[in-house]
Amino acid sequence: MVYKSSKYDSLFKNVIPNSVDGIKIFGANDPYIIKQNYDNVTNLENRIWSELFQNLEFLLDQYASKEYLLGLRSLPIPNNMFPNFNLISPLIENATGWTLLPVAGFLDEELFFEINTKRQFPVTDIIRKSPRFDEKYSEAEIKNDAGYTPEPDIFHDVQAHVPFLMNKEYAQFMWEIGLLGYEIIKDREGLGPDLVAHNLKRLQNFSWWTYEYGLLINQGKTDNYRRYKNDIKYEIYGAGIMSSFDEVNNVIACAKGNSNQSKFIPYDIEEIVMTCFDYSHMQDRYYVVGSMEELYKSFSDNKELFWFKG
After folding, report:
1. Is residue 194 part of a domain?
2. I need a labelling partner for 34 at 20 to 30 A (CA). Which of 9, 70, 215, 300 fits?
């Protein structure tokens, strides 16, 4: 676990006291690698998956980005039952060199980034609202409902994140983020724990406002892949939005002027890395980038932002 320094927090905007109290966090010395016991998935778990997926299916078809739609259609991710990792992982490996790594739960930063450097994406086999989830946290009060749980579950990992890994440019982008995070944590330049913690927060901010909660300008080109035309100015590429029915509808409502819950802000990497986030509530802002190519280039050209030296 990275040292949780707050020495440089005054440099950030929107500082919010996030907490993962009660969440089980696995490190490299813990038994974090598991096997998906697909034959033991219950009817209840399949039903929870079906309800979550089918509530979002047509919304995402209309508002998600091209990269997501093409990835989803090329993978055996069913809308009515748990996905089987053994069927999905070889297809991703063939397309982009990434594989799925079934894990026991929330991983600490060093382990997460180390896994990413190997082009492995950690996926959990547990789903929100299920008895297995309740049993895992029987001794802690952890929010566990259809809209949100602080521990990423199989629905968030597979339904939202995994389709993007079929895209070569996106997969390379994610590998570069993992590599950078691992290099920051290893601190081979000897910056010390305070600066390591600060630079890691910068990278976490970037990740949150982009591949978790980012939006694209809708240029109309993705409508060729949709059942219904996208009728707002934006496309969704953030996985945190895609796995939340409430968050997707919030984007739509705000874009149509039916809500002022959240604002849309033009993408600015210098602002993004210095803007903290709140993962326990609906987002109050979404950063909008012109294209995925612009996002990739921005990250590649501005890696010095993640090496603040005090």
Report:
1. yes
2. 70
